[in-house]
Specification:
heterodimer, A: alpha/beta, Rossmann fold, 6-stranded mixed beta sheet, 4-stranded antiparallel beta sheet, 8 helices, about 30% helix, about 25% strand, B: alpha+beta, 11-stranded mixed beta sheet, 12 helices, about 55% helix
């Protein structure tokens, strides 16, 4: 039994995913990846690289054909569809490029919907939603509908919805893809702030500029991980002091060869 | 970051109240479409409710009429097979009056070969099939008839050439004045019109009769005094008993030539024959409901296709397949219930309008409303079953990438 803080939030070992076709598409071809609590990771790759498939697998929306997927310490292959839903309801927060906010509903209720499938009462869901909206800087926008919000505010509301259930990690799919650069920068700043507060965040993007802002960059191409670099936080860097993010992340893991995972050692 | 680590203990859960809320929000997103597809159900339910409501109101009307008129009137007439000289013995009225359970007796006797005309200039062939009958003065009380205008025959008037017309007779002859100024040509004599009767539901044959006094018929028209129909009111508990006694009482010599009938039965039977038509109309309403259900199913199929990304989002937020299925099923049932509620109101209003236009009492049995509610829930569930199952089966990734 490992100590909770030492256990990786996400651990993939030699994960394969093929889509039927002629020839079959090898979307993931032996991916191994580990994400520790409190990390802020970018998964970067061009379209067709397999990053969307990786997103789906990390989010338990899709299952691997082969290999081991552990989310929050649980082997996904052993979980039923219902249990995966429970995992998503309680442990994973999704942020999408298109926000997916309900148009006729206030920001508060959109964020409260992040707790819809936890069985909490509406009153409690709204109470927590209001708190989370304040956390993402939208305290004065609670009763606005999505069409009354700017693009950046919409995405911040969507982040709040992902965050409201206090998930083990946030999974952000091109969170800045539909935003202008100023709004995109603001959303990235928010993700950095959350990271500084201890939240684990995984950003999936094709944008190297976005990835360069994040401390760890996993490059993916043709279904394989090309490189996995962790940058030492620059002094006074664009993503904050970085000092607070540290406590759960052992310094030894800051830089790590890819081979460590492909050998499948139980080192962590 | 302190939270329970056991994933299995923390289940994905959607409260029933939230299921309804989620289903309702789906409808609210496209109100016009919801209203239009609910309209199909509404038409079906409205038709069924109105059909049952109108027939119930009609039955209620007959029941009230029977309550007012009483069901204890028996009519004695010669059997239909006995065509020529269809008469009863002269003393039959007195014989019936002697029966214990008979509370009142009266009779009419058709005056053979007598006809009534507006004037002596009218072609004798144009009799309008109006029967000239001698009537006893106690006839009105026994058959619950009322005078529409003028007066009824009394002991004095009965001896004079005075006539009281049935409601239809008055219409056929075109007579509305009953002030003693109007005369009709009856059996070769001028008779003064003294009154006109209201329609008599229990003795409709009186509506097409011209009624004259018994003594006048005998003295002026050569009537032999033999009644053709004897009316009697019978104590409620003894109707069957009296019914069996009557033929032998009226005509001891030939009891088989006497037919006893109960006019209230005929009225009730008339109401019952309406039920065939009601069933037919109800089936038509059912067809409309079916078509409405197909409309709802169609709407739901489209909704599921359009909302793939919503399904994907909900799955990402932690919805199970069952939650998705329940959401769309709930939406379909709500849609049908919306139509059902509107249809019930519409059908009720149609019933009320129809009943009031006929001056019937308004009657809408509770089982109709319960049935309408049940039918809409069943239709909604059936219509939503396939689209909901389809939405639930959608893989969450496909749902999200569809954008």
């Amino acid at each position: 039994m490992r100590v909770t803080t030492a256990k990786p939030v996400i651990r993939l070992r030699d994960v394969h995913r093929r889509y039927p076709g002629r020839p079959p598409v090898r979307a993931l071809d032996g991916v191994s990846l580990s994400v520790a609590p409190g990390e802020l990771v970018a998964i970067v790759g061009p379209s067709g690289s397999g990053k969307s498939t990786l997103l789906n697998i990390l989010g338990t929306l899709d299952r691997a054909d082969a290999g081991e997927v552990r989310i929050d310490g649980r082997d996904v292959a052993t979980l039923s569809d219902k249990q995966l839903s429970a995992l998503r309801a309680h442990r994973i927060g999704f942020v999408f490029q298109q926000f997916f906010l309900s148009p006729g509903v206030t920001a508060l209720d959109n964020v409260a919907d992040g707790l819809l499938y936890t069985g909490l009462s509406l009153r409690e869901r709204r109470r927590r939603a209001a708190r989370t909206l304040a956390r993402v800087g939208l305290a004065d926008r609670t009763h606005h509908r999505p069409n009354e919000l700017s693009g950046g505010q919409r995405q911040r509301a969507a982040v709040a919805r992902a965050l409201v259930g206090r998930p083990s990690f946030l999974l952000a799919d091109e969170p800045t893809g539909a935003l202008d650069s100023a709004s995109g920068a603001a959303v990235l700043k928010l993700l950095h702030e959350l990271h500084d507060g201890g939240t684990t965040v995984i950003v999936i993007t094709h944008d190297h500029g976005v990835a360069a802002e994040l401390p760890r960059q996993v490059h993916i191409l043709d279904g394989r991980i090309e490189s996995d670099e962790t940058l030492e936080p620059a002094q006074g860097g664009s993503y904050g002091t970085g000092g607070d993010a540290g406590p759960e992340v052992p310094p030894s893991r800051r830089s790590r060869p890819l081979a460590e995972w492909s050998e499948g050692g139980d080192a962590v | 970051m302190s939270r329970p680590t056991d994933v299995v203990s923390a289940r994905s859960r959607l409260r029933p109240r939230d299921t309804v809320r989620v289903a309702f929000s789906g409808l609210r997103a496209r109100p016009l479409r919801a209203v239009l597809s609910a309209l199909g159900i509404a038409v079906g339910i409205a038709a069924m409710v109105a059909v049952v409501g109108i027939s119930a109101s009609s039955r209620e009307q007959v029941n009230q009429q029977l309550d007012a008129l009483g069901t204890n009137l028996l009519t004695v007439a010669p059997s239909q097979s006995f065509v020529s000289e269809a008469q009863l013995p002269q003393e039959s009225v007195d014989m019936v009056a002697r029966l214990d359970d008979v509370t009142s007796v009266s009779a009419v006797g058709i005056v053979p070969d007598a006809a009534v005309y507006r004037s002596d200039e009218i072609d004798p062939n144009q009799t309008n099939a109006i029967a000239v009958s001698a009537a006893r003065t106690d006839l009105l009380d026994t058959v619950s008839a009322t005078v529409a205008s003028g007066r009824w025959l009394d002991d004095v008037l009965s001896a004079f050439p005075v006539v009281v017309l049935g409601s239809e007779t008055a219409e056929l002859l075109g007579i509305s004045r009953t002030d003693g100024e109007v005369q009709v040509w009856l059996g070769g004599e001028w008779f003064t019109v003294a009154g006109v009767l209201d329609p008599v539901p229990l003795a409709p044959e009186l509506d097409t009769s011209a009624l004259i006094g018994w003594p006048a018929a005998e003295s002026l028209l050569g009537f032999d005094g033999a009644p053709t129909t004897v009316y009697q009111r019978v104590a409620e508990g003894a109707i069957d008993e009296v019914r069996t006694l009557l033929p032998a009482t009226v005509d001891p010599a030939a009891p088989e030539e006497v037919a006893v009938s109960r006019p209230s039965d005929a009225l009730a039977a008339q109401a019952a024959t309406d039920e065939t038509l009601t069933t037919l109309l109800l089936a038509l309403g059912g067809v409309a409901l079916l078509v409405g259900g197909i409309g709802v199913a169609n709407t739901m199929v489209i909704a599921v296709l359009e909302r793939r990304s919503e399904v994907g989002l909900r799955r990402a937020l932690g919805a199970t397949r069952a939650h998705i299925r329940r959401q769309f099923l709930g939406e379909s049932v709500l849609l049908a219930a919306l139509g059902g509620g509107g249809g019930a109101l519409l059908g009720g209003a149609a019933t009320a309008a129809f009943a009031s236009s006929r001056e019937w009492p308004f009657a809408l049995p509770v089982w109709v409303l319960a049935g309408a509610a049940g039918a809409t829930i069943v239709v909604g569930a059936l219509a939503g079953a396939y689209p909901a199952a389809r939405a639930a089966r959608m893989p969450p990734t496909a749902a999200l990438s569809a954008v």
